[in-house]
Request: fold
Amino acid sequence: MSRFGSDPRRRRGLVRGVGVAVLALATCGAVTGPVAAAPKPPDKQPTAIGSGGAVATVDPDATQAGIDVLRRGGNAVDAAVAAAAALGVTEPYSAGIGGGGFFVYYDARTRRVHTIDGRETAPAAMQSDTFAPGGVPIPFPEAVTSGLSVGVPGTPATWERALRLWGSLSLSQALRPAITVAQRGFVVDATFRQQTADNAARFADFPASRALFLPGGQPPAVGTVLRNPDLAATYRLIGQRGTGVFYDGEIGTDLVKTVHAPPVDPAATRVVRPGLMTEADLAAYRAIDRAPTRVGYRGLDVFGMAPPSSGGSTVGEALNILERSDLGSLDRTQALHRYLEASGLAFADRNRYVGDPDRVNVPLAQLLSEGFAGERACLISPTSTVARPIAPGSPDGAHAPCPPAATAARDAGREGLSTTHLTTADRWGNVVAYTLTIEQTGGSGITVPGRGFLLNNELTDFNFTDTQGGNDPNLPAPGKRPRSSMAPTIVLRHGKPILAVGSPGGATIITTVLQTLVNRLDLGMTLPEAIAAARASERNGAATQAEPAFPTAGLAALGHTFAPVAEIGAVTGVEALGHGRWLAAAEPVRRGGGSAKVVRP
Reply:
């Protein structure tokens, strides 16, 4: 029996294409000698329309890896894993095998949505006060850049499980495009250089990070080529021997040594705390099959990720609240007012009730019930805001008339802004929405020596101290998965996919996905317009974060308070256009713009 489950390997739509795919992908194997020619900057476009399948990511090399797999007969799952592995090379500060994520898959044959929980887990030695010894929280920067914040990674297990259940390629075959990119290198763009510069002081304190990301002691210049032969070798080893070499073998041994004794430069003055992870923690990791969340909205079925992600529950609750208003008939101010109010209400409930369902009781069914949404919706006034912070509701099944508005303590939890999301679809109608992360931009800042990947700092997603008066669902505990906001989402009409979206951005992921859905489904925007529109993120805080172009004037008159931010989120998505045609869409500007392609434009 596989360590990741006993399900037989099932293939989707590849009866005729497997042999072709295996033969063609053999040409994408690792480069063992000198690279013949340096790569050129790849073409990057945010929108594509065509047939044969579609891929949208933040990075053109990753999008191309997915498209190449689809062109050779692979399906949406194969393309998603190939693109994710390439992102581990070209977007290493946002994703990689040192982190985790959530995988949402629509199976065209069965018309069912499935999800894999690949969230990181806390070591067995972690306790509720690990980040706050004696009740005093560790300074957040010290928690981030430490072994203490590193959770047991779930990404390799997620890839293996997804391919085993629904893919047509082996893990070795799916990793080959990324191995090629790692060996050949990729062209550094302005976003990568800026992210490197932002982390330069941290990376400089760890010799392995410094050698990889600061060639010559400086961030790589825009237009230069960055290679990662160590990661190519790591991917090759995982492909040859399976993820056991990561969770039970020599890669895992190196990982645990790095967590236990972070290899910091002796000349560095930074406080770098050792971690608690053991080889037993790593060997015990499992990617979990979970039932997706589901809500009905305007005659559609919206599927998302269940806890420990709060994405599906919070987006779903907010949609249930919003369905009580005809947003399309309202003026822009009133429509956005209701979007912000619904988001604030749903976040109040998210903070109080959502955590790892294997460790705390999450009243998910009630949070997503129509009766509870009615209770919360009746607090919304067209002329004023609900006072912040909003108190959580009572998802107890007793749906009373409107309760009086109340306020509550703020949730002090933090989530890093660095993550990445990819979306794929294939010619058979299968769809994947996959969000993966290593938490902060650059994760913990610690690269596993000789292995070429950064470690996450996901355990800082736990609340360091109790924020809920003895009822905090997101305190650390042995083996617990920290609450996440990742919200990969697939929308169906009559059992068939019409839309799939997701975004990075920490807790702003939820509001970004929600606003994109509202823009597309209610406000008459196309998917590219819905993605490009100015955003605001209301999370039941003192002020709503808003991008410069977001229309705040009329909303301020209703009582909303805004805090300016440069940008929020970085969406990718696909939309079914009928007759086998797909629209792939990514950001036109945010994070330097994304990359969308189809097999046959």
About this structure: Residues 47-390+409-462+471-601 form one domain. Residues 139 and 489 are 34 Å apart (CA to CA).
